[in-house]
Amino acid sequence: MVKAELDRLGIEEVNNVQTLILYNIGDANITVGELTQRGYYLGSNVSYNIKKLVESDYLIQERSPHDKRSVKVRLSQKGLDLIGKIDNFFQRNVEDLGKRGFTSEQIKGLISNLRVVETYWSDNIAGI
Questions:
Q1: pLDDT of 75-98, one tens digit each?
Q2: How confident is the model at residue 5 (pLDDT cuts 50, 70, 90)?
Q3: CA-CA distance, 60 to 76, in Å (whole number)?
Q4: 21 in a structural domain
Q5: Is residue 28 part of a domain?
Q6: pTM of the full predicted structure?
Q7: Owning domain of residue 69
Q8: Looking at residue 47, which CATH number applies to its domain?
Q9: Does residue 57 contact residue 73 with C-beta atoms inside 8 Å?
Q10: Do 118 and 42 contact (CB within 8 A), yes or no?
Q11: Type and span of the H or E element at 36
């Protein structure tokens, strides 16, 4: 769905995985390690995607002043603009689901259940 929205918006320089990385960073200023530990990107090369997002000006990358080995990333204005558009897309999806009879409580329950499944899969992949 995110890929289809990027196509609709005419955005070609980022892919759906990179867009979700941006979305999950949000307004945080986090290390690449913290981003990887969140486990959202199993099967993708986070470092490669971060590099591409920095090169295309969606992310700002800075060395931590306290630990020169640690790199922090945050969204640039261009990244913030994109996640604003994706957030609007997600809102439209919620509204459309409402028109199809889903209540906000059902949607929240669905999201909660999907997070449980995601955690289960992540734990199994990590061998926990």
A1: 999 999 999 999 999 999 989 998
A2: very high
A3: 6
A4: yes
A5: yes
A6: 0.79
A7: 2-90
A8: 1.10.10.10
A9: no
A10: no
A11: helix 32-37
